[in-house]
């Protein structure tokens, strides 16, 4: 080739070379870009939680991320692109990532799902506690993607969530069960008064269901409930006004349902706003409270108002009468000879008689009058109207009604009532004085005969004023040392030897002089002053007797009021004996039948305690009571005291002689000594001694004397008795 030709071809060669070099440079650049892209892809895949494996239609691995290799614990050297996917599965089995026991089953299942174009997924719990999730799904051209992911934390979180949800469900169910097991209804509303919760009891009470009212304004719910008539005739607006007002004040709202049940509603404000309301059925407790209140104000036997309720109504009636310038009458009633019914027919029959009498009085008096049982056989009636005319007509109706026998469980019993009437404001203006006026009128009625009535008269009022004056003086008498004791000697009739003396109380009034017991002891017993007076008498008598000869005893009367305070008396007697130095056997208590009537068993128990101390017990006024003989059989009395009413007739009346001799003989047969009181004459003295009576007491032997001269008259009259 010529030089010219060589020169002409050179540019062409250089251009071709430059083109080749450019292509190579472009290829290298593309390779570098591809490498960089793959590196970025690998870096991106490495940041994913899932390991990624991409495979082609022939199930050869195309892409395998480093995260995938880490989970199955292998390297890219073992799985270059083009490696069969089956080999990766076998490695998973070898590494324990796939359960070897069902590895083939797993492989076939995902192949079947893949062939159907479906995604297949399963979890595998590894021995170290790690949980991995496999997921395989197809993409275009028959290729597919497989991911593997450590889902231990997520599964634990899911498990914790499910556990929490289940616990919440259980807690919610327990809460609902607790609410539904409540005996009270409950509702909860939010700050906007929307219903949050109601329990089963609420639904039962008011006929609503939670699902129907949840989220509804509670005021609308209440309106529907009230309008349904559950709460009777009350309207929704006043109902809500009451409960909301009480809720704000912290007060309870009480309603009576149409069914008759009583519901108490209490509200409590919630911390975040809103309210909780409790609907409590208090029917039974309300009825119980009413029963207790009724029992406190009504007589248990007759169900009539008792004294407490009677006085309350009387005071209220007096106030109304004053406001209206009207009149009011009270009628005090007492059954005549009621005690004989109890003694002869027994207390059950007596109780039945009182019950039938109460029914008849209530029927005769009418609904506008108050009929009350004050105690025992004492009744009272409050009546308004034209007085005293209406009260007189009522008393006459009662007398007419009482003319018909009362049926007491088949026994027809005749009962008469005495009635005392007092009118306010004519006779008295306050309840206490009016009752006293009616009592005085009752005493007058009883004095006039059976079945009578009497109106209070002003002359009776003087007795009230006198009684009140004596009562006030009596209260001051003990502190002013106005009481004194006189002593009446008691002798042994056989040889006229002094054996004792009875302590007799006197009141040395600064204005009225010496007052006898009959004029103030009943008032002292009524006012309760007999207790401190009795204590003074016992102490003073023991102190005086302690200075007498040791064979001389002291007899002291014990009143029913003192005896009623059994424990006080039991503590007082040993204390006084110790203070005064008197030996117990020298002390004798004289008791009357009235003391035993109140509570026989309790009385006898106390008497036995006193006898255990060494104190002697004497039955006073023997023969005047109804059951004296039965008492002698029930208790070993140390002495029987024959009442002065029988002694007074000795020598003058044959019946008195027979009675006294019978009592003396009875005592001898029962080995109980007898003593006759009230001996006034030498003949009475002689007869008692002749009958065999062991002891005597009376003015013939000696009048009661002060302590300083107690045995003076007794000694002076000794010769006179010796003649007898």
UniProtKB/TrEMBL annotation:
The protein's gene is named cph2_2
Pfam families attached to this UniProt entry: EAL, GGDEF, PAS_7
The record's section on CDD domains has: EAL (cd01948), GGDEF (cd01949), PAS (cd00130)
Q: Cite the Gene3D superfamilies for this sequence.
A: 3.30.70.270, EAL domain, PAS domain
Asked if the Swiss-Prot or TrEMBL record annotates the protein with the keyword Coiled coil, the reply is yes
From the UniProt record, list the coiled-coil ranges.
Answer: 17-51
Q: Where do the EAL domain residues begin and end?
A: 467-718
Q: Which GO terms describe its molecular function?
A: catalytic activity
Q: Where is the PAS domain?
A: 171-222
Ranges where the GGDEF domain occurs: 326-458
Task: Tell me what this protein is called.
Answer: Phytochrome-like protein cph2
Sorted keywords for this record are:
Coiled coil
Domain of life assignment: Bacteria
Q: Which organism is it from?
A: Variibacter gotjawalensis
């Amino acid at each position: 080739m010529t030089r010219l030709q060589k020169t002409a071809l050179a540019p062409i060669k250089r251009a071709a070379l430059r083109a080749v070099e450019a292509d190579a440079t472009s290829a290298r650049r593309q390779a570098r870009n591809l490498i960089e892209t793959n590196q970025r892809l690998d870096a991106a895949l490495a940041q994913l939680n899932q390991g990624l494996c991409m495979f082609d239609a022939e199930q050869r691995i195309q892409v395998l991320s480093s995260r995938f290799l880490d989970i199955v614990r292998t390297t890219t050297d073992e799985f270059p692109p083009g490696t069969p996917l089956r080999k990766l599965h076998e490695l998973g089995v070898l590494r324990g990532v796939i359960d070897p026991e069902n590895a083939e089953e797993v492989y076939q299942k995902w192949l079947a799902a893949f062939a159907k174009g479906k995604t297949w997924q399963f979890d595998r719990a590894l021995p170290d506690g790690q949980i991995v999730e496999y997921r395989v799904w197809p993409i275009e051209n028959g290729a597919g993607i497989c991911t593997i992911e450590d889902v231990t934390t997520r599964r634990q979180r899911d498990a914790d969530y499910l556990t929490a949800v289940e616990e919440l469900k259980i807690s919610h169910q327990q809460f609902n069960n607790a609410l539904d097991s409540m005996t009270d209804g409950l509702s909860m509303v939010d700050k906007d008064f929307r219903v949050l919760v109601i329990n089963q009891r609420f639904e039962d009470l008011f006929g609503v269901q939670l699902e129907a009212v949840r989220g509804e304004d509670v005021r609308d719910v209440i309106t529907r409930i009230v309008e349904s008539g559950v709460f009777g005739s009350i309207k929704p607006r006043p109902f809500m006004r009451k409960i909301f007002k009480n809720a704000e004040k912290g007060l309870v709202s009480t309603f009576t349902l149409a069914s008759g049940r009583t519901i108490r509603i209490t509200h409590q404000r919630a911390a975040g706003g809103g309210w909780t309301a409790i609907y409590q059925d208090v029917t039974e407790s309300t009825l119980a409270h009413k029963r207790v209140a009724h029992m406190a104000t009504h007589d248990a036997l007759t169900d009539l108002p008792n004294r407490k309720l009677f006085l309350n109504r009387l005071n209220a009636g007096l106030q109304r009468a004053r406001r209206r310038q009207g009149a009011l009458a009270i009628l005090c009633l007492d059954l005549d000879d009621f005690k004989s019914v109890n003694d002869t027919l027994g207390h059950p029959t007596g109780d039945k008689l009182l019950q039938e009498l109460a029914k008849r009085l209530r029927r005769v008096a009418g609904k506008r009058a108050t009929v009350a049982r004050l105690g025992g056989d004492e009744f009272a009636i409050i009546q308004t109207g034209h007085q005293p005319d209406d009260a007189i007509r009522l008393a006459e109706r009662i007398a007419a009604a009482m003319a018909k026998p009362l049926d007491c469980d088949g026994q027809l019993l005749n009962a008469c009532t005495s009635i005392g009437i007092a009118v306010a404001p004519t006779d008295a203006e306050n309840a206490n004085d009016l009752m006293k006026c009616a009592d005085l009128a009752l005493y007058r009625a009883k004095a006039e005969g059976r079945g009578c009535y009497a109106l209070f008269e002003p002359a009776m009022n003087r007795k009230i004023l006198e009684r009140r004056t004596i009562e006030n003086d009596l209260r001051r008498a003990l502190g002013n040392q106005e009481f004194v004791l006189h002593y009446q000697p008691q002798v042994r009739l056989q040889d006229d030897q002094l054996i004792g003396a009875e302590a007799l109380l006197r009141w040395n009034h600064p204005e009225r002089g010496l007052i006898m017991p009959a004029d103030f002891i009943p008032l002292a017993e009524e006012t309760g002053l007999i207790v401190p007076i009795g204590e003074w008498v016992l102490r003073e008598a023991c102190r005086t007797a302690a200075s007498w000869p040791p064979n001389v005893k002291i007899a002291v009367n014990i009143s029913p009021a003192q005896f009623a305070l059994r424990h006080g008396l039991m503590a007082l007697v040993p204390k006084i004996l110790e203070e005064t130095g008197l030996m117990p056997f020298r002390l004798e208590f004289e008791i009357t039948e009235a003391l035993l009537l109140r509570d026989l068993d309790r009385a006898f128990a106390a008497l036995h305690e006193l006898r255990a101390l060494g104190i002697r017990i004497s039955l006073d006024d023997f023969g005047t009571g109804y059951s004296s003989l039965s008492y002698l059989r029930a208790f070993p009395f140390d002495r029987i005291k024959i009442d002065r009413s029988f002694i007074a007739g000795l020598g003058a009346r044959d019946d008195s002689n027979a009675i006294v001799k019978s009592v003396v003989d009875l005592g001898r047969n029962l080995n109980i000594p007898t003593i006759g009181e009230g001996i006034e004459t030498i003949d009475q003295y002689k007869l008692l001694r002749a009958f065999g009576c062991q002891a005597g007491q009376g003015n013939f032997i000696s009048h009661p004397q002060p302590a300083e001269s107690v045995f003076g008259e007794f000694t002076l009259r000794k010769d006179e008795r010796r003649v007898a």
